[in-house]
Amino acid sequence: MKNENHRDKWEGSLKNHVEGKLLWRLPVDQVMVKDVLEVLDPIWNEITPMANEVRYRIEMILDDAANRGFRSADVNPARWTKALQHSLGKKRPESGQTRGSMASVDYEDLPALMVRLRDKQTQSARGLYATALSVLRTQEIVRMRKCELDLDAEQPTWSIPHERFKISPHKKDPFIVPLAPQFVAILREQIGELEQIYGADRVDYIWPSSTAGTRGGKPPKNPWMSHNTMLKYLKESMGVEATVHGFRASFISWTDDQFLEGHEGAPKYHKDAIAFCKAAKNPSGKTMEKYRRSKLMLAARAVIMRDWANHCAPPLEKSNVTPIRQAQAA
After folding, report:
1. H helix intervals, 199-256
2. What pTM was estimated for this model as a whole?
3. Could you give the 3-state DSSP secondary structure of residue 153?
4. What are phi and psi of 126, to 5 degrees?
5. Dist CA 184 CA 188 (whole Å)
6. Which member of 47, 62, 102, 128 has the greatest number of CB atoms within 10 A?
7. Torsion sign, CA atoms 56, 61, 62, 68
8. What structural domains does the chain harbor?
9. Which residues does 222 contact at the CB level (< 8 Å), separation at least 6?
10. Alpha helix locations (H) across 89-210?
């Protein structure tokens, strides 16, 4: 790998899109085209540039295995061919094409959406609500575990293992997320429902894939919710043409419009603290080690995440958003 950042992107893309599939568990000499297609089919039309990166990385891994004598060098099932293109139904992107920005909800429209989500009282709705408040990636949210949460502290926190990140925000240490009161409330509600289903001492993943395994159905492939579950719920049940990842863009647009009172044009929040809220890479330069020692500006992030939560889900006494039930009754 060229550098640590490049290595993180390789590992992150494969964990996000291959882990949980049969390909992840297969010996390299048993991988076939159908196994590659199982990975690429769900993402090829939605995020083609990323899907092609995943395809290329699988191809490179299998080529390396062939060079080392672990599989035949005659056929690489991930290599780009006319047959593979026909199966996927869309050409691969031109070299240099980027994934582009994710469709997002205007931050001014988020409070009304959050009211609608709270009204739904479903796990997917609560998951979307929590994701919007967290401004983290879906992969980090859906694998949240009860043991990672400290909801009773003066400043409640969520401690995320570095392995879960697409790009680890600070090396091998857990990433500490300060939780706003609205975030704590939605987590307590979700945990309370899970405890009714599983029992208080059997709750692990906060956003489980299904309770079918406890009710006689087929056990799910993974114990956590699929990445696509919330996206499907947002589009089909909520009627919102945006992506879950787009909540991060909503957050950035909101921070861009926050200025110090009485100081026109002066940003309200430190740019590195904003980046750390999104679990971005440590900033370069002399300040990096200082920020790492302070847990990536935890106190500054706590203020930002509290303010963001108050924008998305204003406390009832401050809210000017009409709850959906009242709107329907009127």
Report:
1. 227-232, 246-256
2. 0.68
3. coil
4. -65, -35
5. 6
6. 128
7. positive
8. 4-88 (1.10.150), 107-329 (1.10.443)
9. 20, 209
10. 110-120, 123-134, 138-142, 181-198
Report the alpha-carbon distance of residue 72 to residue 29 in Å, rounded.
Answer: 7
Given its phi and psi angles, is residue 150 left (phi above 0), alpha (psi -120 to 50 degrees) or beta? beta
Residue at 74: amino acid letter:
D
H helix or E strand, kind and range, residue 306: helix 298-312
Q: How far apart are CA 34 and CA 41, in angstroms?
A: 10
The predicted pLDDT at position 172 comes to 72
Profile the chain (330 residues) by mean pLDDT over runs of 10 residues.
Answer: 57 82 93 93 81 90 92 91 86 53 84 95 95 93 96 96 72 88 97 94 91 52 83 92 91 93 84 89 53 73 97 72 38
Q: Would you state the pLDDT for residue 292? A: 52
Place of tokens 């790998």: 1
Q: Are 47 and 227 in contact (CB under 8 A)?
A: no
Tell me, what amino acid is at 166? Answer: K
Q: Would you give the DSSP letter of residue 169?
A: T
Query: In one letter, which amino acid is 208?
Result: P
The letter for the amino acid at 129 is: Y
* Residue 98: count of CB within 10 angstroms of its CB: 8
Give the integer Cα–Cα distance in Å for 248 and 314: 19
Token pair 């001014």 is found at 108
Report the alpha-carbon distance of residue 206 to residue 224 in Å, rounded: 8
What is the length of the chain? 330
Distance CA 323, CA 270 (A): 34
